[in-house]
Amino acid sequence: MTNRTTDEQRLHGPGLTDVRMMKVAHSNFRRELGLSPAAVRRTAAGDRRRTAAVADHVELFLSLLHHHHTNEDDLLWEALLERVPHELAPLVHVMQSQHEQVAEQLDLAHQAVDTWRRTASGTDGEHVATVLDNLCTALFEHLHAEETHLLPIMARQLTAAEWEEFTEQGMSSIPKRKMVLGFGMMLYEGDPEVIDLELRKLPAPVRRLLPPLGRRAFRRYARRMHGTATPPRGVGLIA
User: What is the predicted pLDDT for the residue at 96?
Assistant: First the structure.
């Protein structure tokens, strides 16, 4: 039995709430934020149109990440601390410290992007890229710790209704005009079985149309943002 199979069994199955959608969300944060410093550095100084497009991309994922962590704090931590304080005790300090580090880098990134958007200068662009590099270092460490230590506890302790509320809140942070693109992003790297479970919640016509539309939207977006319709998968994974 492979390690991957073992990990997946801990996140879903009989008696467990299926929390694998969290890993799908994490893959998008890893890839899109992990590739963003290069997108910033490819932007020529003075190219205001390209600067605005890349700044919009970065700001979108900074906002989604902030919303994701706020939802975790509001909807998950309190419930888990009440139910299994002894299991979480070794993790609380680490997770809180990591959240604080990520939050600090998020604030710095927002400030840097705002400045770069106004000036479109090469110097300010390089500062954005450096801040994003630092953010990704802190974020990837946190996501790895969360997936390794926290998700299995969530699978055992959260109810299906609580998890559904969390995922619905997460989806609500995606701008409506970007919903098809967002689904294409999940399809690109997400576990097909998990994606299929999400599709089953939708009306039949939407289930048929959404995957091809999403894939097409992501290919177009990836070409504009990353220079390829097939950006690297597995960005930011810690071996």
Answer: 84
Cβ partners under 8 Å of residue 121, min gap 6 = 45, 46
The domain defined by 20-173 carries CATH number 1.20.120.520: yes
What is the pLDDT at residue 6? 56
DSSP E strands, the chain: none
Would the pLDDT of 85 be above 70?
Answer: yes
Q: Between vectors from CA 184 to CA 178 and to CA 186, what angle results, nearest 5°?
A: 105
Give exposure, 75-96, as e/b (b: 16+ Cβ within 10 Å): bbbeebeeeeeebbeebeeebe
Q: What is the pLDDT of residues 189-228, one digit of tens each?
A: 999 999 999 999 999 999 999 999 999 999 999 999 999 9
CA nearest neighbour of 183 among 194, 195, 168, 169: 195
Is the Cα torsion angle 70, 187, 181, 50 positive or negative in sign? positive
Contact 109, 33 (CB under 8 A): no
Q: Is 216 helix (H, G, I), strand (E, B) or coil?
A: helix
pLDDT for 3 beyond 80: no
Q: What is the DSSP letter of 59?
A: H
* 0.85 exceeded by pTM: yes
Question: Domain limits of the chain?
Answer: 20-173, 176-230
Token pair listed for 51? 């600067």
